[in-house]
Every structure is written in C-alpha cells, then in structure tokens.
C-alpha cells in the first residue's frame, strides 16, 4: 500500500478542499464543524482540475480532506473518517452496529433514489420525462419520510447523523426544482414528518454555516436546467449510468 503525503505549507493538521456550491463537498464541511475540528478551508474549482489538486484527489472531485499530510476523498467516506478520528459527540454514525447499518442503508437510499431523480427533474428537457421524475421523486421521498423518527427532531430522533447531513445537502437546493421546474413538495400529511425534520435540520448551526446563497445556487444550476452542465453527475444523467 502506497501512502501519499502532502506538504500544503499549512500550520493546521486538517485541510478541506471544498467548493461552496457543491452538495457533496458540503457533507465533509458540516462533519468537520460538527466535530469542532480546527481546519483550513480551501475553496477549490472542481471544473479546473489542476495538477496540484489532482495530486490531492486523482479523481479531481471535492471534497478532499488532508489529515496529517494524508488525503481522504469521496464525500460519505470523508464523513465516516471524520467521525472515527474525532470521537467526541455528536456521533455522526450510531455507535451500535445494527443502527450504523441502518444509517448506511438510508445513506444508500438517498444516494440512489433521491439524488439522481433530483437531477433528472432539473436536467431532462422533455416535459414527460420531467413529470415522470417528479412522480418518482415524491414516491421515494414518501418512503424516506416514513422512516423519519416520529418524535424527531432529526432522522433518528435526538441524534444528528450522517443521514441528516446528506439529506439536508439537497433539501437546501430544492429551490432549484421550484424555480426551474415549478416543482414543490406538497405540504400535506404524507410529508408532515419530512417538513418537521427539514425545519430542524436546516436550523442546525453547521448546516446554516455551510448553506449556499439561494440566488447564487440558482445561477449555478442554470447549466443543469439547460442540460449543458459539464460534470460527471450531468454526464451520468445524460447516459443513464450510476453516479460517480
């Protein structure tokens, strides 16, 4: 096993390569704040894959976390790593093995059943395809909502976890669907738990501190709405393949 070390000329043990607009990068950013880690934030343009950044993450994607000169990337893995290294509360993955497995099940569900459908709504240009995606999104969100704790405030109840982080990174961007596709989550009994959860999650200090400006996000997503975005996510939607 080859371990790569990086000298970033930083006095801090931890550096976060992030992009303000990226929901995947936001996950690691939130995790570091939740754990009260002292870190250096490095704003990074993932569309400009410089040799320097590719030396940190060969895939050229954010987030990437440098800890004591070693690189970790892939957003969910970053969150798990941060939770394991800094073991103070909050525990972003439950400590009990079964509950950890359940958390990972719902992380997987969001990654396969919520996020790709979100992008299909935004990116598809045919109205029939958009409407099909909207229907699928609501069906999947209803399934997810039924799994949210009845008492709340968070997905598993009192404890804020990785599931809340990953879901919130996209609920903060639902305004994109409303603006470009006239699509909103119905505020009815089916989604009562979801709206209760959303209010609590988006009021969390770490989420508020990392939330993108809504107007800037709309401007950023116009390329998705026009199906001209040049990203691995956009390419996956066009090709109907799995997300990167």
TrEMBL record:
Record's keyword terms, sorted: Transferase
Residues passing through the membrane, by range: none
Domain GST C-terminal: 96-243
Gene3D superfamilies: 1.20.1050.10, Glutaredoxin
Gene Ontology biological process: glutathione metabolic process
PANTHER family: GLUTATHIONE S-TRANSFERASE OMEGA, PTHR43968
GST N-terminal domain segment(s): 12-90
Catalytic reaction(s) noted: RX + glutathione = an S-substituted glutathione + a halide anion + H(+)
CDD domains: GST_C_Tau
PROSITE patterns documented for this protein: GST_CTER (PS50405), GST_NTER (PS50404)
Higher taxonomy: Eukaryota, Metazoa, Spiralia, Lophotrochozoa, Mollusca
Class in the EC hierarchy, top level: transferase
Residue ranges that the Swiss-Prot or TrEMBL entry lists as coiled coil: none
Protein name per UniProt: glutathione transferase
EC number(s) on file: 2.5.1.18
A Gene Ontology molecular function term of the record: glutathione transferase activity
């Amino acid at each position: 096993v080859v371990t790569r070390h990086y000298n970033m000329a930083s006095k801090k043990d931890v550096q976060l390569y992030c992009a303000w607009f990226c929901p995947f990068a936001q996950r690691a950013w939130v995790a570091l704040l939740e754990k009260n880690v002292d870190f250096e934030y490095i704003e990074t343009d993932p569309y400009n894959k410089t040799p320097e950044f590719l030396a940190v993450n060969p895939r050229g994607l954010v987030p990437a976390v440098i800890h004591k000169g070693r690189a970790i990337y892939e957003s969910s893995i970053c969150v798990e790593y941060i939770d394991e290294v800094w073991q103070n509360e909050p525990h972003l993955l439950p400590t009990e093995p079964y509950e950890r497995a359940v958390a990972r099940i719902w992380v997987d569900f969001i990654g396969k059943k919520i996020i790709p459908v979100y992008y299909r709504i935004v990116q598809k240009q045919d109205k029939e395809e958009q409407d099909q995606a909207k229907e699928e999104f609501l069906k999947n969100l209803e399934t997810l909502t039924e799994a949210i704790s009845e008492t709340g405030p968070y997905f598993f109840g009192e404890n804020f976890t990785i599931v809340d982080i990953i879901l919130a990174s996209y609920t903060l961007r639902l305004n994109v669907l409303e603006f470009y596709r006239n699509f909103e989550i119905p505020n009815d009994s089916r989604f009562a738990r979801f709206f209760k959860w959303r209010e609590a999650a988006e009021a969390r200090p770490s989420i508020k501190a990392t939330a993108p400006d809504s107007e800037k996000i709309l401007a950023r997503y116009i390329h998705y709405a026009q199906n001209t975005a040049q990203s691995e996510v956009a390419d996956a939607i066009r090709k109907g393949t799995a997300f990167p």
